[in-house]
């Protein structure tokens, strides 16, 4: 890019907040649903009349009500204002009819402590407008609707969602994935905020992967045990850009330990087919073979715990590298309960693993921001790409790594870097404005990365930027982002002594 280039996606709003209205008004994708749920909806017994239900909804200015068992409090169904008006006006329902006769039975439910991103994908996949939030014992906590979960349908995603859902074979999925990337590039160039764009891309990429898994699942006779497809790395952090490879694994629950090896052998051909299909859809295979088709990452729930426990107990260089990849996991498809239990177990263990956290922080501090004491850029002397900066390893990582350390230290559920920094600020008593500046600079680096990825066809260069190709304003912005990363690392170094 020359000094005269406009870099149109880096508009004036980005220099201040690095976002658009979509980013600022949308909910954070890894915020827990419990914190996003609106006030408790009207809850009525099955015998309540339509008249009583309409009155309760009207009085509380809601658009839906939950039907629950009076004795246990467990939700039985859902009714919406729109559907009640329809059955009364056009289907001859009477106002004295019991509401149970017209409710939606077995409505979609999700754990109240699930991330918002999971609810977005579930609602989009099922075409639902409401989700019931439930406690671990099945009791109702609240209700979320599409208005509570803005974001995934932004940017004209409706047609893309429909094409993904209608795909019946791999060629159709490949075409849908290409359309998503093309539309994402258009949104970036039009100035969509980085956080909103990554959430948008991650949501649609999740739908693509889920549909691919569904298609492959139909071709295999899988064991009748609970299992879940996991994603790691940038996909696990909801920070997918336009040059992201696969990082995934599989967790399953054998009925007894002796069945583990046989079950693994049954799952591996399926995992191989999924990895190959995702590759054909544009998700490159992991060069480090961190994929579910690798027996090392197709593990039982107990094996995952033992693997994580070993890394925490003996923080070798290899264990630390694994922690930066695998500890950012999240469930994508299958039985989410096992993955959630693994996350809860990991957070409980990591908070007391002082030596691991200390070494993890030490490893994060080995990456030095590429800016010298005189304020000039410094370079890693890469022979193939001299005078360039790797904005993944020497840029985004400067924010990702400290956020991970603090999230593990404070038991924060989120894996997304921005959400981790926001949550850590609360635990550390830091001001929201200071945290906002950190996140803005992280997203600024991500914007430079994405811009480079959309311009370069060389996979080895997709994250490398030559500052001389930037105009003066963008060089100043990039320097300021690296200075902010230095301040972040200084805080991490000071707190490292506490681990």
Q: What does it look like?
A:
The structure is a single chain. By secondary structure, the chain is an alpha/beta fold. The protein has three domains: 33-148, CBS-domain, CATH 3.10.580.10; 168-328, Beta Polymerase, domain 2 (2-Layer Sandwich); 357-496. Helices cover 51% and strands 10% of the residues. It has helices at 12-17, 21-25, 33-36, 50-59, 81-90, 116-126, 158-166, 170-189, 194-217, 233-236, 260-280, 301-313, 317-326, 336-350, 354-365, 392-410, 417-428, 432-455, 472-496; strands at 43-44, 64-68, 75-80, 104-105, 109-111, 130-134, 140-145, 227-231, 248-252, 298-300, 330-334, 389-390, 464-465. The strands form four sheets. A four-stranded mixed beta sheet has the order 1-2-3-4. The chain has a four-stranded mixed beta sheet with strand order 10-9-8-11, sandwiched between helices. α11 links the parallel β9 and β10. α8 packs antiparallel against α9 (194-217) and α9 crosses α11. The longest helix is centred in the last third of the chain and has 25 residues, at 472-496. The protein is globular, with a radius of gyration of 24 Å. Residues 1-27 have low confidence and may be disordered.
């Amino acid at each position: 890019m020359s000094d005269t280039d406009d870099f149109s996606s880096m508009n004036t709003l980005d220099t201040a907040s690095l976002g658009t209205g979509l980013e600022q008004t949308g909910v954070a994708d890894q915020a827990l649903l419990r914190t996003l749920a609106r006030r408790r909806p009207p809850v009525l017994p099955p015998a309540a009349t339509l008249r009583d239900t309409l009155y309760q909804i009207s009085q509380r200015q809601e658009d839906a009500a939950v039907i629950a068992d009076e004795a246990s409090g467990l939700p039985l169904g859902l009714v919406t204002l729109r559907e009640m008006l329809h059955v009364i006006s056009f289907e001859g329902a009477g106002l004295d009819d019991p509401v149970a006769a017209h409710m939606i039975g077995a409505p979609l439910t999700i754990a109240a402590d699930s991330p918002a991103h999971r609810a977005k994908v579930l609602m989009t996949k099922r075409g639902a407008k409401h989700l019931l939030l439930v406690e671990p014992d099945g009791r109702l906590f609240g209700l979320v609707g599409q208005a509570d979960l803005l974001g995934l349908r932004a940017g004209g995603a409706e047609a893309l969602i429909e094409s993904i859902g209608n795909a019946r074979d791999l060629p159709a999925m490949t075409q849908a994935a290409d359309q998503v990337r093309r539309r994402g590039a258009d949104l970036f160039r039009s100035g969509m905020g980085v956080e909103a764009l990554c959430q948008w891309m991650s949501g649609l990429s999740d739908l693509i992967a889920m549909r691919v898994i569904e298609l492959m699942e139909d071709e295999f006779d899988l064991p009748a045990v609970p299992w879940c497809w996991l994603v790691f790395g940038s996909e696990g952090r909801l920070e997918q850009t336009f040059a992201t490879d696969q990082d995934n694994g599989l967790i399953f629950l054998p009925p007894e330990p002796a069945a583990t090896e046989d079950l693994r052998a049954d799952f591996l051909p399926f995992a191989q087919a999924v990895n190959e299909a995702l590759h054909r859809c544009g998700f490159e295979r992991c060069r480090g073979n961190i994929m579910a088709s690798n027996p090392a990452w197709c593990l039982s729930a107990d094996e995952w715990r033992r693997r994580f426990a070993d890394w925490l107990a003996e923080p070798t260089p290899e264990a630390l590298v694994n922690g930066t990849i695998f500890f950012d996991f999240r469930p994508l498809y299958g039985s989410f309960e096992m993955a959630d239990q693994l996350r809860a177990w990991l957070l409980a263990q990591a908070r007391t693993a002082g030596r691991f956290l200390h070494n993890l922080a030490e490893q994060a501090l080995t990456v030095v921001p590429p800016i010298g004491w005189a304020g000039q850029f410094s370079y890693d002397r890469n022979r193939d790409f001299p005078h360039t900066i790797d904005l993944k390893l020497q840029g985004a990582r400067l924010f990702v790594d400290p956020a991970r350390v603090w999230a593990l230290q404070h038991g924060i559920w989120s894996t997304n870097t921005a959400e981790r920094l926001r949550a850590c600020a609360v635990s550390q008593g830091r001001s929201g404005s200071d945290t906002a500046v950190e996140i803005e600079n992280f997203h600024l680096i991500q914007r430079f990365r994405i811009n480079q990825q959309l311009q370069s066809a060389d996979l080895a260069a997709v994250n490398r930027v030559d500052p001389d190709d930037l105009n003066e304003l963008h060089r100043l912005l990039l320097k300021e982002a690296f200075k902010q990363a230095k301040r972040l690392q200084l805080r991490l170094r000071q707190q490292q002594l506490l681990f």
